[in-house]
Write a structure and sequence with these properties.
This protein has 104 residues and is of the alpha+beta class. It has a domain at 34-103: 2-Layer Sandwich (Ribosomal Protein L30, Chain: A). The chain has helices at residues 8-19, 38-47, 53-66, 76-92, and strands at 25-31, 68-75, 98-103. It has a three-stranded antiparallel sheet. The protein is built from four helices and three strands, in the order αβααβαβ. 51% of the residues lie in helices and 20% in strands.
């Protein structure tokens, strides 16, 4: 019997584990301004980010008091889409609301 241990299944599984990585995650942030109404921010949080009314108010107040608030953490493509949706809805409704994303 030789000392050489050849197990193709184990080698394959080991290689796959090395190659697979979690996608980078991004925080989606809302920024405070002097023109966007609190009601509109709450509406955005409920419709775009699917927050409950109480969660939406809590985040809106963080944005209002701290200048910025986290809406959620998502993979890059989802975060980009949510940022675009917020900007589109804000412009459509005449608000300068800013939204950005930042890698976690």
């Amino acid at each position: 019997m030789s000392d050489w241990d050849h197990d193709p299944q184990r080698e394959f599984e080991s290689g796959v584990e090395d190659e697979l990585q979690e996608p980078p995650m991004y925080k989606v942030l809302l920024h405070n301004d002097d023109y966007t109404t609190m009601d509109f921010v709450v509406e955005i949080l409920q419709t775009v980010f699917h927050k409950s009314p109480s969660e939406a108010v809590k985040i809106m107040l963080k944005v209002h008091h701290n200048g910025i608030g986290v809406c959620g953490v998502y993979p890059a493509e989802v975060a980009e889409t949510k940022v675009e949706m917020v900007h589109h809805l804000a412009r459509k409704n005449g608000f300068p609301l800013r939204c950005s994303m930042e890698e976690v």
